[in-house]
Amino acid sequence: MEHNQQSLRAVALICSLKPSPAESSSALMAEHVFENLRAHGVDCEQVRCVDYDIAPGVEADMGGGDQWPQIREKILAADILVLSSPIWLGHPASVTQRVLERLDAELSNTDEQERPVMVGKVALVAVVGNEDGAHKVVADLFQALNDVGYSIPAQGCTYWNGPAMESGDYKDLDEVPEQVASTTAAAARNAAHLARALKQAQYPSYQ
């Protein structure tokens, strides 16, 4: 970490359909993002969303055993959100959509300047899949995250797609392709830079 840099926190929401401790390409991709974020002085934590009972809905707390509030606390405490999703049938995983729907509640959760609380926070997207479609999934997630209030850094995504009609998986690679590794590094570097800039100069008041 460079001297005099303000410390940052990142949380990765792993939207794999596989509960812990199953191996997950989405979790591995997020960890590769974290390796780069840590090099920029960012504290990192992963959350495997299917390990929690996340109720359907668009409220911060749906009650009745809903465990989203536990995840929400981690999100609110973080400067950077990494949303890591697999592609299924050409779309983000259903878990990813559930997360976005729950984040919708934050539009009405504002600070003393009437800004939605996610304004001033940064989001990265990581996508893995065995078919084409990463650009579409990234675009869908970027739009939703930006609507909620997150800022997207320059080149703020990383992804890997295996060849069509084959069964290879990111977690089974002997080595991460150089182009993927450099893309991951750039996304993390830009996210840390933007998050620090926003901590020093928040967006104007909405009042």
TrEMBL record:
List the Gene Ontology MF annotations in alphabetical order.
oxidoreductase activity
Report which superkingdom the organism of origin falls in.
Answer: Bacteria
Domain named NADPH-dependent FMN reductase-like: which ranges? 10-148
Q: Quick one: signal sequence residues?
A: none
Enumerate the InterPro entries for this protein.
Flavoprotein-like_sf, FMN_Rdtase-like_dom
Name this protein carries in UniProt:
NADPH-dependent FMN reductase-like domain-containing protein
Native source organism of the sequence = Mycolicibacterium gilvum (strain PYR-GCK) (Mycobacterium gilvum (strain PYR-GCK))
